[in-house]
Design a protein that fits this description.
- The chain has a domain of 239 residues.
- The protein is 76% helix and 1% strand.
- It has 353 residues and is mainly alpha-helical.
- The chain contains 16 helices and two strands.
Length: 353
């Protein structure tokens, strides 16, 4: 009797912990965030300076892509103009860093300023649908960065040459010889993990549920009591804030905020990354950012190794983008993350047999 009671008593805590783990979304997300921080740190310290620079670039592109995949994948709003929001964040950060403002304050301010602009754009976007929304955001991507060369703003925003950003050195506590690229990668990684943690909890919240309702059927969502317009505006605000944070990191990593860095190509690259990874998937946003960042370098190295003419290998990244996009869509219509999930299920089934 005592032995049975003892066995039962020792069996209860694991079951209780398992039940808490299953019920607490916040706890699970916190665990994965801490695991991601550890993995990111170990990866960073094992890479050289150039690879850490690429890691920092992947981080800010993944942040912008995560915001876009929440907007398009969950709320169903198409945006071809997220490069403009990245530009706003970059210019905001460049102006604030020029005043010797703390880097943390600068990045938060860049996200808040861009999020406010996203809310204004969202008010107009809530009245548009389909190709009309895509056209409006496309015009935003083309027109907004060019304002830097406008006569009245040229002195403030630097015109076509943009603004030069002074690099923020690593803390002296890390040592005088600590690589700047690794420090930038650490900042980018911390921002990425925090962003994914917040978005993951947002997606599982009532607001995330409302976004999915609106995506599926706006009329049915409205009849169910979901504030459709407000949900769409807030989705644009959140997505733009992510792009603004990415823009602040862009200015920090590249030491520049110029119109030429925020062309339509950037907006299309973000959309490509979201589609490749899987619309609506935060993990897919990271996969897509990795491909969008590394594919151009890989394709350029491959073309140079094949001794192709310069005017030919300059177009190889575009061709490779198209090939990869077609292959992913054919093999995994839901994106890379959907393919990872499918492979994982097949492996579990094989192991259970």
């Amino acid at each position: 009797m005592t032995k049975a009671a003892t066995t039962e008593g020792t069996a209860k805590p694991p079951k209780a912990l398992l039940r808490i783990w299953r019920q607490s979304t916040l706890l699970r997300h916190l665990f994965w965030a801490l695991l991601g921080l550890v993995g990111y740190y170990l990866l960073s310290v094992s890479l050289d300076a150039f690879a850490n620079l690429q890691l920092a670039q992947i981080s800010y592109l993944a942040i912008a892509t995560a915001g876009l995949t929440v907007l398009s994948g969950l709320s169903g709003q198409i945006s071809l103009g997220h490069g403009a929001f990245v530009a706003v964040g970059a210019y905001s950060a460049a102006l604030l860093l020029g005043k010797q403002t703390s880097l943390g304050v600068v990045l938060i301010a860049a996200a808040v300023i861009t999020g406010a602009l996203g809310a204004l754009v969202g008010v107009a976007a809530a009245r548009l649908r389909g190709p009309y929304l895509a056209g409006a955001t496309l015009a935003l991507a083309v027109g907004l960065p060019s304002l830097a060369d406008y006569h009245g703003l040229r002195d403030v925003l630097g015109g076509a040459n943009g603004l030069i950003v002074t690099p923020q050195p690593p803390p002296l506590s890390l040592g005088e010889s600590f690589p700047l690229e690794r420090w930038q990668a650490w900042i980018g990684g911390l921002c990425l993990i925090i962003t994914l943690f917040l978005l993951a909890n947002l997606v599982r919240s009532r607001f995330g549920q409302n976004m999915r309702f609106v995506r599926e059927n706006e009329e049915a969502a409205a009849l169910s009591g979901v504030p459709v317009a407000r949900t769409q505006i807030l989705a644009f605000c959140v997505s733009a804030a992510c792009a603004g944070l990415a823009g602040g990191l862009f200015a920090m990593v590249n030491n520049l905020a110029a119109p030429g860095a925020f062309t339509l190509t950037l907006s299309l690259s973000l959309l490509t990354a979201a589609v490749l990874g899987g619309l609506g998937s935060l993990a897919g946003a990271v996969y897509g950012a990795v491909l969008v960042t590394l594919l151009p370098n890989w394709s350029t190295n491959l073309a140079q190794a094949a001794n192709l003419p310069r005017d030919v290998y300059a177009n190889v990244p575009l061709i490779l983008y198209g090939v990869v996009l077609i292959v992913v869509i054919v093999l995994f219509p839901g994106g890379i993350q959907a393919g990872v999930v499918r492979v994982g299920r097949l492996l579990r089934t094989a192991v259970q047999r």
